[in-house]
Every structure is written in structure tokens, then in C-alpha cells.
Amino acid sequence: MPDLSIIIVNYKTPQLILDCLTSVYNYTQDISFEIVVVDNQSGDKSQSIIQTSFPATHWFQMGYNSGFARANNFGIRQAQGRYILLLNSDTLLIDNILAHCVQALDAQPDVAAVSAIQLQANRQIRPNLYTTFGQMRRAFYILPGAEASERLLNKLMPDTQYDDPNQVDWLSGAFLMTRASVIAKAGMLDESFFMYGEDVEWGYRLGQQGRLLLLRDQKFVHLEYGSNENNQQHVVTHINRFKPQIQVSQLLWVRKQYGIGAYLVLILHYIGMIPIVFIWKMAVNLRERRLPWVDLDNQWAFTKQVGIFLRFFWKTLLNEPGFYKV
């Protein structure tokens, strides 16, 4: 039995996986591991490209684009290791982080899962990464950026406080190492999620089995969005902070973890914000002596996003199992 099973989901990213696996083999020492790649119907030469360079790689085909949760669950079912690592294809290791994480889990049986600090391609720490449920929930509300708004949101959705500075509410699925025995108790990823949000929801269930630690002395590179150029092109604004798929998934998480009331409050908030964002922008236009209906692309984009959320409204409200793919 290997110490670690490394599960990577592939969707048309053979070069990223080659780079990722090169870093895994170059830096990993003192532990045994296996590589499990699950392919989401890439329809290219990914398998031959990767297995030519890394023939020991176990390769599995999903037969359709199943997203993150379903593909990782398939990989978990094939895994033979004591520990399971979900690892994004667009990640690079820069030292013997895998052995350090295994040692941390070996030494602390009350820890359910561990992760590490994410670096950008330039090796700078990735800013504004959420580690608490409160941070995630507060980010969904579109309020004026004044201190009063921040204080109100912090009061309504406070962050969990832990004695251990490494302990967090949830860990990013880009690099998440847990025990096979913990998964057996907590269950696998929720397959209603297509992409995004599944690691947040899983974090809640993993956290019921033990502490979740973000090892701040361990780091890895997360290039991010390697397989989706549209994400790279997404322009973030105050009212359009997330791609539709991200927010549909996060709304599903809110419904699952916090119930109908929390979900309805968010939906009503978004619907109520539609006239507000238009009135605000028109007032700005008038103040700047422009026609009131010019430069409203951002407001129309927000309206379109809300329309996408509402397509999933009844399904989410009733918490129906399914495939929440935009």
C-alpha cells in the first residue's frame, strides 16, 4: 500500500500535468506514492502524452465532462494509499511538501486534512484566499464598501476563531490531503457540484471528523485557470465578482450548509440589487453630464447573472440531487 494516492483531474491540460508530475517526481522523497489521473473526456492525446513520460500513471476515463467532484470521487474509489491528495493539474511543487504533509498527518491523528499556502507563478503568496466560511459568505453580498457595511457583515457572519493559527474552516481542493479513513466517515465530494464550492461543502464534513490545518510553512504554486481561458478573461467588478458557475455552486453550498433561509436572503438580495445598480450608474452618468443609459454593460451583465441563478432556484431551494452545471 502506498503512503499517498495523488488524484489529478484532466480536461485538456496534458502539458500542465506533465509539468505538475515532473515537479512531483523531482521533489518528493521519503514516501511512496501513486498517480491517478481521471480524464473528463478531453478528446485529445492527453493519455498518450502523459503516460509516455510517466508510464506508472494510472489513467481512467470518465466518458463525459463530469466536473471536479465526480471525477475526484472516481479517483478516490481507485486509490490504494493511506492518504489521498486532491491536486490540481495547474499546480507545481517546489520542495518536498508531500512528505511534510504526510508526516503532519502521521504525527497528529486528530487532524482530518491538511493543505498549504498557495503561491502565484511569480512565487508571491496568492492574495485574498478564503479560509473561513464567514469570509466566503460575506463576499456574496454587494454592499457599499464603507466600514459600516463591513462591520455589519462581520457581525452577522463572523469568522470562526481557533487557538491554532493553522486551523481553518475549509481547505482548497487545489491541494487537499486527507486520510482514506476520514473519507470513509465523512463521505466523498458532493456530486451535485460541477465545479467550485464542492471543496467548501466537503470542508464542513471533513471538519466534523477532525481539525483542518493550513500548514503555513508549506507552499506550492497554483497557476490557476489553466484549462479555462474564459476565466482568465473575466473582468472582476464590485457587482460581478464571480463567474456564473462559481456563484451557482456557492449558492448551492449556502443552501446545503445554512438552509433555506440563508439561501433565500441571498437570492432576494440579488434580485433587489438589480434596480439599485442601474439607478446608481444612471445617477453617476448624470453627475458626469452623460446620457443616463450609456455604459451600462456591467449592470446588464449582473442582471444576466441573476437570471442564471434563478434558473437553478427551485432545484437549489429544494436541495434536489442533480448536476448544477451552468
UniProtKB/TrEMBL annotation:
Q: Name one GO molecular function term.
A: transferase activity
Taxonomically, which superkingdom?
Bacteria
Keywords of this protein's UniProt record, alphabetized?
Answer: Membrane, Transferase, Transmembrane, Transmembrane helix
Q: Which InterPro entries match?
A: Glyco_trans_2-like, Nucleotide-diphossugar_trans
Domain Glycosyltransferase 2-like residues, every copy: 5-123
Q: From the record, give the transmembrane residue ranges.
A: 260-280
Is S-adenosyl-L-methionine given among the entry's keywords? Answer: no
One of its Pfam families is Glycos_transf_2
PANTHER family referenced in this protein's UniProt entry, alphabetically? RHAMNOSYLTRANSFERASE WBBL (PTHR43179:SF7)
Which protein are we looking at? Glycosyltransferase
